[in-house]
Amino acid sequence: MTELCLTIGNICKEIQRIQFDIETKQYASAIDRCEKLDELICEIEEGKVKLEGFHPMR
Fold first, then answer.
1. What is the rounded distance in angstroms from the CA atom of residue 12 to the CA atom of residue 2?
2. Is 15 helix (H, G, I), strand (E, B) or coil?
């Protein structure tokens, strides 16, 4: 599995955790997870995640 796939998987997991935190009114935890989500997205944007094997659809 490529590094990009793993990172996207981690992003999806964080989104699910944020949704759960909001549903259970654990807002401080949701905010912390949003910060982690932002870090994961920034890793992709900044090119820290290898995109080998990734072929965007045309």
1. 16
2. helix
For residue 16, what are its two tokens?
A: 């699910």
Residues 57 and 44: their CA atoms lie apart, in Å, by 18
Which residue type does 10 have?
Answer: N
d(CA 48, CA 24): 33
pTM equals 0.79
Long-range contacts of 10-14 (CB under 8 A, 24+ apart): 10/40, 11/37, 11/40, 11/41, 14/40
Residues in the chain: 58
Q: pLDDT, tens digit, for every residue of 6-20?
A: 899 999 999 999 999
Q: Which two tokens stand for residue 56?
A: 């965007």
* Tokens matching residue 42: 């920034």
Tokens of 49: 């995640």
